[in-house]
């Protein structure tokens, strides 16, 4: 066996793994294309029969019953799903034409569809052309969400490609649409064009939301910055989902010691696409120019104390209330560190409380445990959590 542990064998093994994974991907593509082709056929014929015959609402109900009985155990023929199929066809037919899936399997197999930011611009672009190949990139459960939530083909392209690039589940897709990610994508106020190499500037901008929608948190209206930080750490999975692909949590309140003094940045992440640490500073007040100076200091000190030589300099992100964008831009123009400022959406927090400040959903309060934990239990000792990348 020892003789097999050679570079030649390892190369063969690597080639086999790549071939198997490629075959698996092609099989998944083929199944999805065939399913959507079938649904297109069903949607087209159901639409035509309903338009050109006297069959009324009972037609789909009867069709569903007969197909379900004939293909027992096969999903997709419920009355509800057949209505989705009809809607799906009627929505996309004017955009894609009558036979968009013909020859698509061969096209898909001959193309390696780009899902990496370096290969594909996945921001919401005016005039982005929706194709049948785009539709085959996500499964039917995603299509039902897109059909329910969106009407603009440009946004459909955006959310499909984001789903592929980030590996979103159906629920994740729905959450991002409802939080209007397309309006928050790459819109932070930043100095990246000046402080980062050109090839990294756009990627860094795309990695930051503005505003950050944190409606999964449950906070009292009088919450402080430390309450916000603690809530984000407790709900780390949801926060990672909001941040997007590539963010790995490193720690919060990590102690930076300098000549006898200690400093504690709020949240530290590592971005695997940017190959940089990212420090988040959380502020519940209006933006102040001093925030930039504080975060620039944290970035420089963190790089000196913790950054590995192979990584790029740390980026800083301030989440706060933004009232005057011009003030933010002036403050960033004086910074040599790469820093972005994003708005904090407080309305999503306050919706859970009535006019008297009482939680209108007490089950959330019990589940989170935030209301019952004293503020002074939150110490400044560095908190490290195993890295999780999404």
What does this structure look like?
- The protein is an alpha+beta fold and 390 residues long.
- The chain folds into 2 domains: 7-182, no CATH class; 187-384, Trna Endonuclease, Chain: A, domain 1 (3-Layer(aba) Sandwich).
- Helices cover 49% and strands 12% of the residues.
- The protein has helices at residues 7-52, 58-70, 79-96, 104-109, 132-135, 140-149, 153-166, 170-178, 181-184, 192-195, 198-206, 225-234, 236-243, 289-305, 325-333, 347-350, 362-368, and strands at residues 189-190, 247-252, 256-258, 261-263, 267-271, 276-286, 312-321, 339-343, 383-384.
- It has a 7-stranded mixed β-sheet with strand order 1-8-7-6-5-2-9, sandwiched between helices. It has a two-stranded antiparallel ribbon with strand order 3-4.
- Strand 3 and strand 4 (261-263) form a beta hairpin.
- Helix 1 packs across helix 3 and helix 6 (140-149) packs parallel to helix 8 (170-178).
- Residues 113-124 and 348-390 have low confidence and may be disordered.
Secondary structure elements and pairings:
Elements: H1 7-52, H2 58-70, H3 79-96, H4 104-109, H5 132-135, H6 140-149, H7 153-166, H8 170-178, H9 181-184, E1 189-190, H10 192-195, H11 198-206, H12 225-234, H13 236-243, E2 247-252, E3 256-258, E4 261-263, E5 267-271, E6 276-286, H14 289-305, E7 312-321, H15 325-333, E8 339-343, H16 347-350, H17 362-368, E9 383-384
Parallel strand pairs: 6-7, 7-8
Antiparallel strand pairs: 1-8, 2-5, 2-9, 3-4, 5-6
Helix pairs in contact: 1-3, 6-8
